[in-house]
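Supplementary Note 3. Input sequence used for the single-chain structure prediction.
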Amino acid sequence: MKNGNRSVMKFLQSDPRALSLLTLPAVLLFITFVAFPIVSGINISFTNWNGYSQEYSYVGFDNYRKMFTDPQVWTAFRNTLIYGFGSTLVQTILGLAFAMLLVNRFLFRGVARTIIYLPAMVAQLIIGYIWYFIVTYERGALNDIVALFGVDKVDWMSRGFRAVMIIMMINAIAYCGKTMIIFIAGLESIPNMYNEAASIDGANAWQVFRHITMPMLLPALTTSLVLNIIGGLKMFGLVVAMTNGGPGYASHSLSSLINSLYFGGQQAGYSAAVGMFSFIFIVLVSILLRRYLEMKEAQYNG
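The predicted structure, written as discrete structure tokens, is reproduced below.
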């Protein structure tokens, strides 16, 4: 089998046309599902299209000028930062804690890992609806528990900032299992000889964690942070399921606001402009974060 693979590689290297034919399907898929939608979105963002009519006109940068003075957009942008960076912080802490615990061998370790990771396999929209019935004011499970202690019901999602924080925490708890798996893989790749050498030198648990475990977990940390930041900054399902951006537009993320502007407000051109802003922001954050973390890795390895 290995000889066959080598023969194929030699053939591809000797005939660039064959390699081009093999990459053609990937290029076509990229153009169809990535490049073309981006270009179309940029074009629509300069129009006043309502999303349905066959007639529209170009309005230049009016949509972008409106976006930077629109309080709805700035509220959604603030919430997006909380959803992205807040949930990433909590996910990282919980995921690392679970990984440190479940990397050890004990009875039912596999069951515990499965239970923690299971919510990450469920669609965000479904998780949102489940939690909606937990925190809803009327007949919500959380208020039923509170009532057992003689405390009045609380309308948990009636205040914008509180709703944002609740959604952020739910996202972090639901998807910390994904972070846990990444950290477990990183922990299991650390050779035992480092910990054994530190124990011989008299290092305590905190010193081992700080000077050995965390530096060697930097590749796993980089992967986890970038994925979690991207996921949090484009949060959509939880917001739609739990509040639909309410009360008013106080809990909207940029993604849910784009959806609301397009389908609720029939402002396809304006929503495309907000979408372009969101896309560029997420790309810049992910690139800068990754470069910073890779620089830290290089400093440690150097």
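The two ends are 38 Å apart (CA to CA). The chain has 14 helices and no strands.
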